[in-house]
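Hello forum,

I keep getting stuck at the same step: I have a sequence, I want structure tokens, and every attempt I make locally crashes halfway through. Rather than fight my setup again tonight, could one of you with a working pipeline run this one for me? It's a single chain of 155 residues.
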Amino acid sequence: MNFYSIKSTQHLPISLEEAWDFFSSPNNLAKITPPDMGFIITSDKKDGEKMYAGQIITYILKPMLGIPVKWMTEITHVKEGEYFIDEQRFGPYKLWHHRHSFKKIATGVEMHDEVNYALPFGILGTMAHNLFIRKRIEYIFEYRTKVLEQQFPWK
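Reply #2:
Ran it on my machine without issues. Output:
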């Protein structure tokens, strides 16, 4: 089984508190996910609710060819204002571990993501990764970067 890692860093001209407030709300996930993925949270959402360790979030998305996929993640770790980790419990990956980190810098916040993942299906999973899965994950991060630049513009 092959393991993969994708890292992304973005600087935002906002306070650490504002960044944490935005990213720790599961209700904002759809705002930073490409619309063509049809992202819908199916678990109970409460307005203003912040994520917490042990929280289960279920959703449906259409990552490829408009085919709906059910996905369940658990927020396994939260250190307020610093990081949180989501891990897949059910979904398309054999392993999915995503760490979202935040650090105050002179111009605002440095946001860092690291996703470690593995695919099922042996050599077929490896081929799919090389052909389109890695590109699709990178596309999601590129989309998010653009949306966040619009949401939190530099002045």
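Residues 62 and 86 are 19 Å apart (CA to CA). If your local run keeps crashing, start a new thread with the error log.
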